[in-house]
Predict the structure of Penicillin amidase.
Amino acid sequence: MLTIFRWLLRLTVALIVLGVVSGVLIWYFAIRSLPDYDASFRVEGISAPVEIVRSTENVPHIFGDSDEDVFFALGVAHAQDRLFQMTVLRRAAQGRLSEIFGPGSLPADDLARRLGFQRHATASLAAQDEGTKRALAAYAAGVNQWIAQVNLEARGRGAPEFFLFPDQITYWQPADSIAILKLLAAASSTAAADEILRARLSLAWPEHGPEIVSLSGSGPVLQPYAALFAGARLGLPERRRTDADRHRDLIGFLAPGLGIGANSFATSADRTTAGGALLANDLHVPLTAPSLFYLARLELASGGVIGATIPGIPAILSGRNPQLAWGMAPAGIDDTDIYVEEVQPGNASRYRGQTGWTEFATRREVIRVRDGVDQTITLRETENGPVVTTIDPGLRDILPLGHVASVRWTGLATNDRTMSALIGLMSAQGQSQARDVLSAVVAPAMTVTLADASGVSQSLVGALPQRADDHPTRGAMPVPGWLREGRWTDILPAARVALGDDNMVIGTEEHAGGLRRARLKHLLQEREIHSRDSFVSSQLDIVSPAARALLPLVGADLWFTGEPAAPGTPERQRQDALRLLAEWDGQMNEHLPEPLIYSAWMAALQDRLIRDELGPLADDIDSLHPAFIDAVLRNRSGAARWCDIVQSAPDEDCTTIARQSLDLAILELSAHFGPDVTSWRWGNLHQARHIHPGLGDRTGLGWIMNLTQSVSGGDFTVAQSASQGRDPAPWQAVTGAGYRGVYDLADPDSSVFIISTGQSGHPLSRHYDDLAGLWRRGEYISMSLDPQLARAAAVGTTRLIPR
């Protein structure tokens, strides 16, 4: 017995020692990949010494003798701080995520291969102007020099994640940056998913189903979808979107159809206190750790430029130079069409074209799968575009038997010069020159806000599909691929459309149904003169215009005026909730109960309105449609029909449904937070979870890599913080302003910037999350274009010396 005890003791001690040694080794190799920001490196690819001056917040200020040397150094800085993110974004664009993440990434890889981001990027490289080609080549050389330094000096493989994933880091190519830009463009557009949803709604209730989105102003629906395809039937829908699905969507940081939003607004010098134009821009993206964005300052031959970049793309997407400020927002145009192609019976290699049965253009590719079986896929193309299978989970619900879907998208161009436009914009000396440069944009179509000494303006840029007047669906739903009238008649550059008056312009994405734009317009017009601080206040506004519009309407016949019910009863809870909402100003403040009550009530109301007509398909309507609820409660075009529960004997009216929905919402919230409605808090459930792609879902590691914090705001506030809308965490904030910037041209160095996490992608760096707290509190950092100020405040300077 004593011998056994001794051996158990020795084994225990050995395991403890092994654990300690393993922990020390892991820590050592992990910290080896932390870059030294105050070091010198001899590198190939530059013509003269270059300095990367790091501010307190780890923002690189890059100084070199030529633009090519500056872009080279930006590649080094991006790779120093975000090498894993860069390689993951590249893999997402190439369709090679499964090589490191395993079978769960197969749908993403399949879609990326079929859309051909990398192929079209490689073809588009030749279309770029010479300056852009040099910039892309220099940037790629800078990334590659840092990879070489990592290998030469054993710097922990460049990022700790590379110890967990079998990634052979291949050298960067200029086309890789264009491929990531195409991935960003695809992520900006929800047009394909919108078409498929309208078709599913039409199949579920041909007469009125699409009203859920059409009454929200999401486009026309001219005829039932079933009328286009004989025998089309809605497949049995199932709840398709889960928290695991969201993680798979974000495993590459970006995925086609995710949806990207923005606010961008500006006012001219005559409406500012300091006598210079003001411009604000915030970009709404899925929340990841690290953030999609990275702050940087470049000293180009044309002058300094500063603002937000995306690692992998050598351009300031939103920012300013000494003469010009710019901000961007996705235009929300219908840039994609889904075509339903009939496959020839008995011959799967042919489809029905305009002139008869036509051969698919095919090729085969192999997707390598970590810890799984490699997949060989056959890529097919029609006259309309590539055949897709995973562009949206609901696609299989609308495809008749013997049919496949193809897609046409403006971003599939092989002469796409959007990269040249973005790089050229940084050197533009004024609005006129900027608009000329931006005429080359193809995808994504954007609303670009510009400000300089002459004033402010807003332009629509990008490729716009043209459809025939007799198009069967006008692009609102999928169309038979063999119909000539369903084809695009042309693709034209966007016209330069000015929005707003001569001294103020406002731009937001269109997904909010105009509510966010209306709120911004109100905020900007209620003051005659603006300052940087008033623009910051507008950018951080958390009043929900949807709540202000809907609550008086939904609760019109419910507001409590009589004697209070007995404490602890459901009636008293309803009375207390209605009293709180009646006195609420619509502020989606994380410390208040009203935003939670309102959000739960509206979600329950919408679900109760649509579930009996749509059945399980209602599970996929996971975002609120205020215009639909408004139309139903006002009985616009007979929309009050949605209030009657078809399966019940009585004829319910909208007031009854509203009261029942409130009671249900209160019951569910009471189960979580107790019966006292005044003690509930929006921030208890509305938490921003910045997920680390790849490691965020791993037990233990997720606790280290992910960032979670309660936040104010909501789906329709200017400070956008959209909720997940589905179980198990329906109020978890899944998107937000990954970047905010306010540019003051009267005092440029007072311009302010912030991203949602930190500059570093290394979880052991103090810069991994040092900006997250500022972001949550609505604070910013300043970044100067004065070289002396940048050097005076430097905490480290990396020197690149020609070899």
